[in-house]
Amino acid sequence: MRQVAVSLWQTSSRELVARLTASEQRLRPAYAEHLDLLAELDSRGSAYELGYSNTAALLVHTQNITRAEANQRLAHASALHDAKTPTGAVVSASLPLTAQGLTTGEIGVGQVEVIRKFVGSLAHLKPDKVALAEELMVERATEDDPNALARYGERWVRDIVDPDGKPPHDDEPQRPERELRRHVLRDGRMEFKGRLDAEAAALFEALLAPFEKREPGDARGYAERGGDAFADVLQQAANCPDLPTHNGFKTEIAFTISMDELARSVDGRVLPGTRLTAGEARRLACDAHVLPVVMGGESKPLDIAVPAYVVPAHIRRGLVLRDRGCAFPSCDRPASVCHSHHVTPWLQGGPTVLGNLVLLCGQHHRLLHRSDWSVDLVDGIAWFTPPDFVDPEQKPRRNHNHLPHSLYAA
Questions:
Q1: How far apart are CA 310 and CA 382, in angstroms?
Q2: DSSP sequence for 159-192
Q3: Residues 6 or more apart from 409 whose CB is under 8 A from it?
Q4: pLDDT tens, position by position, 26-80
Q5: CA distance 407 to 27
Q6: CA–CA distances in Å: residue 41 to residues 77, 93, 192, 227, 386
Q7: pLDDT computed for residue 95 by the predictor
Q8: pLDDT at residue 246, as a whole number
Q9: Is 283 in contact with 365 (CB distance < 8 Å)?
Q10: Listed residue (44, 115, 43, 105) closest to 76, CA to CA
Q11: How much is the pTM?
């Protein structure tokens, strides 16, 4: 390092600039190669295979970058690379000239982002106009910095390819002030959309706000945080003692499973009814009002257990006193939105005792069940071991935000 410093000290300013430019031109093809790898990773769905909800979350954990940077890299990879549809058809890259310019080192990451955003704003135009816009922007990108390139696009290119601007939209017809449309998918998930009046919207925002706040190190995007917050609000509503009943009973989850399936509990096996893998069933059974139904060979119920909360209230109180909140490393979600996770799964005979339980928020509860993360309790403290692709040395980590007490580790 000292020899390099001496060498630079002896270098003229002009030569330093020349070497800096050469270094920049080497960085650009390296970023193009990075996007090649990222596009392949994303197209395979590798993030879900490794237990993450999306590729951006995987990047945050493995590359130690912000969620915003992860999303930007994914957007670049998507725009600069061909993609395959579920049917196997190939969809050409939307910015092929930009990809070529980055690979040859003629344009940089900042110019790529400007071109992506500008061309993306022209989606209402015919393909030949969009292609012309990209060509003009790439030609100029070899001369301009990103800010100058953005001004060039707005002042000149837009007037050339889109002189009339976007077509106007008709006003939406009058709608009810409150409405909710929902559709249950075949795998049990739900899609919905709706609208609320101002009063209900304000209440909805007030309920979500404490749960969807982004904390340092949070790998979730805006939509994912909102979805998790909504689930947390539902969880708290379900725990309300004044929750209305349905046909005289509060809502329950019924698991229908054969004795063999219950014993094997293979993660990839799909259970009948609303489609759940055994792994998902174990996660739900960690902390839910469940009704186990054991089925015989002719799909007839052999036994229906008495419904009960898997984690009794007195044990839950001790768990809250010990963990204080989500025990996953760096998470600071409060105990009020956390699930009680069985270290040894309840469906595999794990006891419902404090020494086999740990508090986890919904996000990290799902991650633990879906990925190769593991957890062990040592003297009442939860230690989490990451997968080797997160940390090749797989050093156990703990949460330092909640000050857990080993007094309650029994």
A1: 20
A2: HHH-TT-SPPPPPPPP--SSEEEEEE-TTS-EEE
A3: 322, 354, 355, 377, 379, 380, 381
A4: 999 999 999 999 999 999 889 989 999 899 999 998 998 999 999 999 999 999 9
A5: 53
A6: 10, 16, 29, 24, 20
A7: 96
A8: 47
A9: yes
A10: 115
A11: 0.61
Q: What pLDDT does residue 74 have?
A: 96
Is-contact 328 371, C-beta < 8 A?
no
For the chain, where do the domains classified as CATH 1.10.10 start and end?
A: 19-161
Q: Does domain 19-161 have CATH number 3.40.1350?
A: no
The two tokens of residue 242 are 């004044």
Two tokens, residue 280: 């998902």
Q: Which of 286, 255, 267 is nearest to 351 (CA)?
A: 286
Query: Residues 84, 90: contact at Cβ < 8 Å?
Result: yes
Q: Which of 361, 298, 281 is nearest to 324 (CA)?
A: 361
H/E element, 138: helix 127-141
Q: How far apart are CA 285 and CA 276, in angstroms?
A: 12
CA distance between the termini of the chain: 54
Which residue ranges of the chain lie beneath pLDDT 70?
1-6, 86, 168-176, 238-310, 403-410
Per the DSSP assignment, residues forming a β-bridge with 254 are 291
Contact 203, 229 (CB under 8 A): no
In order of 4, 50, 228, 235, 269, the CA distances from 368 in angstroms are 46, 11, 15, 19, 18
Closest CA to 332 of 210, 226, 224, 207: 210
Tell me how crowded residue 393 is: count the other CB atoms within 10 A of its CB: 6
